């Protein structure tokens, strides 16, 4: 069996270093905030080339805090992709606003200026551009569009840590265990060049103030744990190396599966013109017909494939939003993600390619 993800494999070579960090934190007594968190924020801001970073409890919390920090109010709307993980929409509601759904580009699975323009109305105060599967959204074009509208641009980088810093107002990311840099639980971060926004995020995540018994705003407990920060301090320096492996692995899949695209049974993702703008958090193909049978066949053959995501957010029962999102709907019908992580062995790649090939050539699928 080749798993879709294998978080333990990322941790295994680092066990001794991680255990030493755990012991150091446990002996320090600094379990909330403290030196490890400060070091994590400094290291992350330098690595991702933002002036400021704030460690928070999860990628979802990062979005909620970012929206609250820019002053999102009840009655406001925030544009977000119809095709994404539900967290990008849930965060908007938790911040008190209403989601305005935008369709995505069929090839990149990201929002574009054209799709957000169609979702625009006078109540919109921000855009959340999700870097789906690790491919960066067109941030420069979206930032210009947002500036013309006098609204904020938030780049949801839960799946894209390590893409170029193209200057959104705020960049958020996640360190969920299956991400390219994974914690051993939930963790996230908010990054920005705006000192005022960073301060608000920090205050809100600490009950509304940085000084005990002096609170400037309504806050919550949204900070990162010191133990998670300590683990990430071990891992962040590995990011560039892991990202190179991901890009090589994606290119290998592309080369090995290219001929199958001609069969019409599978579509392979294209790399962007600038390869740096994709960190390949997932390798997601499209199966235009009989995806369920294709997926079931792969699982029966021992390939841990999965679908991200089988239903668009506006069609989830909790939202049931009106509108037509043809590209999002098509992607939800066709996408299928193959095993993909930096520690995938050459033998495992051979096995996955062999099983995908057999499925493509099977007359029953």
Number of distinct helices: 13
What would the CATH topology of the largest domain be? Answer: Aspartate Aminotransferase, domain 2
The percentage helix is 25-40%
First CA to last CA: what distance?
21 Å
Strand order of the largest sheet: 1-7-6-5-4-2-3
Approximate shape: globular
Mean pLDDT: 96
Low-confidence stretches: none
Secondary structure category: alpha/beta
Total count of domains = 2
Order of helical and strand elements: HHHEHEHEHEHEEEHHHEHHEH
Named at the architecture level, the CATH assignment of the largest domain is 3-Layer(aba) Sandwich
Beta-strand percentage? 5-15%
Round the Cα radius of gyration to an integer and report it.
21 Å
CATH superfamily of the largest domain: Type I PLP-dependent aspartate aminotransferase-like (Major domain)
Protein described:
This protein has 365 residues and is α/β, with parallel strands linked by helices. It has 2 domains: 7-237, Aspartate Aminotransferase, domain 2 (3-Layer(aba) Sandwich); 239-361, Aspartate Aminotransferase, domain 1 (Alpha-Beta Complex). It contains 13 helices and 9 strands. Strands 1-7-6-5-4-2-3 form a 7-stranded mixed β-sheet, with helices on both faces. α7 links the parallel β4 and β5 (152-156). The longest helix has 19 residues, at 239-257. It is globular, with a radius of gyration of 21 Å. The chain starts with 6 loop residues before the first helix and ends with a helix. The mean pLDDT is 96.
């Amino acid at each position: 069996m080749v798993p879709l993800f294998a978080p333990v494999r990322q941790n295994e070579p680092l066990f001794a270093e991680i255990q030493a960090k755990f012991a150091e934190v446990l002996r320090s007594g600094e379990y909330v905030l403290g030196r490890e968190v400060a070091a994590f924020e400094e290291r992350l801001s330098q690595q991702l080339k933002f002036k400021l970073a704030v460690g928070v409890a999860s990628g979802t919390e990062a979005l909620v805090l970012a929206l609250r920090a820019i002053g999102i109010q009840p009655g406001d709307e925030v544009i977000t992709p119809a095709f994404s993980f539900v967290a990008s929409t849930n965060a908007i509601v938790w911040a008190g606003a209403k989601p305005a759904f935008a369709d995505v580009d069929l090839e990149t699975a990201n929002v574009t200026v054209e799709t957000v323009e169609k979702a625009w109305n006078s109540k919109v105060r921000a855009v959340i551009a999700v870097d789906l599967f690790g491919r960066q959204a067109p941030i420069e074009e979206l930032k210009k569009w947002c500036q013309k509208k006098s609204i904020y641009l938030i780049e949801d980088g839960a799946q894209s840590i390590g893409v170029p810093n193209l200057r959104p107002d705020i960049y958020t990311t996640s360190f969920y265990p299956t991400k390219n840099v994974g914690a051993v639980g939930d963790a996230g971060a908010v990054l920005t060049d705006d000192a005022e926004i960073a301060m608000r995020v920090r205050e809100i995540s600490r009950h509304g103030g940085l000084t005990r018994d002096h609170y400037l705003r309504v806050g919550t407990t949204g900070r990162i744990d010191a133990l998670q920060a300590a683990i990430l301090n071990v891992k962040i320096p590995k990011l560039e190396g892991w990202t190179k492996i991901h890009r090589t692995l994606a290119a290998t899949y592309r080369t090995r599966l290219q001929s199958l695209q001609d069969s019409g049974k599978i579509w392979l993702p294209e790399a962007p013109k600038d390869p740096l703008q994709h960190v390949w958090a997932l390798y997601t193909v499209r199966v235009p017909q009989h995806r369920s049978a294709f997926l079931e066949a792969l699982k029966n053959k021992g390939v841990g494939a999965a679908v991200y995501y089988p239903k668009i957010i506006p069609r989830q029962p909790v939202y049931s939003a009106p509108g037509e999102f043809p590209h999002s709907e098509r992607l939800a019908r066709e996408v299928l993600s193959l095993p993909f992580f930096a520690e995938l062995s050459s033998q495992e790649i051979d096995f996955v390619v062999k099983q995908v090939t057999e499925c493509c050539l099977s007359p029953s699928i």
